[in-house]
Design goal:
mainly alpha; 3 helices; 75% helix; flat
Length: 81
Amino acid sequence: MSTEQPGADANGQELARISQHQHEATAARFTVFQALAAVGIADDQADDIVSKLEAGAVAGAHTLITESSAPHDSEHHFEDG
């Protein structure tokens, strides 16, 4: 008899995907900082640039999710398709 909960494998796979995305994002961020330093951008200015890029990406993703979601108070209309 298994003690695993249903969906535990799927949860583990999702956590692995999240971890991989975080690792790739950290590596990309480090690369951007190296490139900015190579062209003489100061650390504080580079941090500001990268922070603005990240904020824009989050805002863009949020907008995409919001625009593809059902309008407020209309969820029951969308349940049946």
